[in-house]
Amino acid sequence: MTERLPLQGLKVLDVATWIAAPAAAVVLGDYGADVIKVEQPGEGDPHRANINLAHFPKAKANYPWHLDSRNKRSIALDLKAPTGRAALGRLIGQADILITNFPLPVRDRLKLRYDDVKVGNPRLIYASFTGYGEEGPDKDQPGFDSNAYFARSGIFDTGRYDGQPPAFSLPAQGDRASAMGFLSGILMALYERERTGRGRMVMSSLYANGLWSNAVMVQAALVGGYIGLRPPREKPRSALANIYETRDGRWIQLSVVREEKLWAALCAAIGRPDLTDDPRFSETAPRRRNAAELTAILDDVFRSRDWPAWSQILKAHHLTHAPIAKLSDVPEDAQAEAAAAVVPTSIPDMPRTLAAPFQLDGVTPRRPEPAPDLGADTDAVLREAGFSDAEIQALRAGGAAA
To answer: Which of 81, 158, 267, 283 could form a disulfide with 276 if both were Cys (CB 3.0 to 4.6 A apart)?
Structure first.
């Protein structure tokens, strides 16, 4: 007997492009929802071609597209054409969730605001994702995660080292984190609808998610608290929250947060019990004042052994640490599969992929299937919505569907 997934029976319209909003729709599909991706005939979602961008690693598989559109169906509708927009209206009337990240002026032109669609479907969850929010002086400003999530939120600046320019993010890091915040609002609205029978508008943005991610620093600023730029690694604020290179050229992230409890354990682990009662380091305050001196000592210590040996030693002493993994390490990391973070797929040229970053006890999400070709499901979706063959043919003949 096929297991019934938690969201089975829900119909989701993914009227969105790029990554953050569609990534939220992916997770709904993973757990059983029927996700219909509405795309413009011709090019479709620009994310289909993102693998060609210079900062995306190249591979045989179009992995960005599969990652953010697996288990979806694609319908190609020209929403600028009155008949195409009317067809979408019929689909909206039967949907449970509509996800969109179209710019607000575009939604105005397409009559795709919440007030435009809720009358015909009062149970609809209308999930709106923007760069900077629905109101304010920058509500119409285009937003990608590099500018709205990382730059505007202060993450780039608070994470940089003194004397160095701000760093730059890697592809879609803020998008995927934002997708999970967006998903939380959608699921909360669904829960409320189960009790009240009424739909609701859900709003999220890259900017709000970036601020939330940078919450410690932002909240400090909100009450007048600031900290200087990061000092260089050799002169850290804390030598016990620093990175160290091993003999074989690997780097360890040491994160000894409970210093007073674990200081003696660290001294024992590194074979330097003499440091335990050294007045320069025996308590937190002097240990911080002398962080550069302690870092120099730890540099010499960690360069004395290879990473595998240090891993065993630090684990045996229950000291929080991790290797700074190279991307080439991740495919062979047994923990990723054991934790169900990496799962098998039915995609021939992409046999493994990333799962949603949570699991439900006793529930196995859908096995990822290939992302759809543009318009692959146009006819099937329209027929399910009650369109006759003659109506579908007319939409195609007029260029409103493909």
So the answer is: 267
